[in-house]
Design a protein that fits this description.
alpha/beta; 7-stranded parallel β-sheet; 7 strands; about 15% strand; globular
């Protein structure tokens, strides 16, 4: 059975789809990977014909019919849908990407409350995403996030153009800094699944 990795946050604009794509792309070199795009915007589904190294689908059967896969990433919509509780239960790992900002911190509370309600805190990890360099806001955000009973990834994903372009360029291999960040986060994801 494939490991199911859910990427969720109530707030839009935190980079869920881009992070999902890059983690899937990074793992696809040595693993059989698929993405389930459940976001109504369907950003990832729209580029599925451009992706060769893994599958992108909107068919939810992939969550139960995935014997040939190693990993299924689930990109969720930026709101608490009715399906989120069952997705949280099915997930082996829940990633909560967030930007460093006041509104992002306010919005993450609802997502974490729902994760706690489902008893999935130990299967969850917050990822600081789209981080601006050299700001005290990141430190302030980290301080606030530590009040939750959720692991915080050591790897911070920077706000690099390479990530923005990654879906067209099939990843971030051409940018050493972006690739190193993605490699480090991939290791943290794999370690969390052990």
């Amino acid at each position: 059975m494939a490991k199911i990795i859910l990427i969720t946050h109530q707030k839009g604009g935190v980079g869920k789809s881009t992070l999902t794509f890059n983690l899937a792309q990074n793992l696809s070199e040595h693993s059989k990977v698929a993405i389930l795009d459940m976001d109504v915007q369907g950003s990832l589904a729209q580029i599925s014909n451009m992706v060769e190294s893994f599958e992108i689908t909107t068919n939810q059967n992939i969550l139960t019919e995935n014997e040939e896969l190693d990993f299924v990433f689930v990109d969720t919509p930026p709101y608490l849908s009715k399906q989120l509780k069952s997705l949280l239960q099915a997930a082996d790992l829940i990633l909560i990407p967030t930007k460093a900002g006041i509104l992002d911190l306010l919005a993450i509370d609802s997502s974490i409350s729902l994760i706690a309600e489902q008893g999935k805190e130990t299967n969850s990890m917050i990822v600081l995403n789209m981080i601006k360099p050299n700001t005290t806001l990141t430190d302030d955000t980290l301080k606030s996030l530590r009040t939750y009973n959720i692991k915080i990834a050591k790897t911070k994903i920077s706000d690099l153009v390479a990530f923005t372009r990654s879906t067209l360029l099939k990843g971030v291999l051409e940018n050493n800094k972006a690739q190193k960040q993605m490699d480090n986060l991939t290791k943290e994801v794999l370690t969390s699944l052990l």
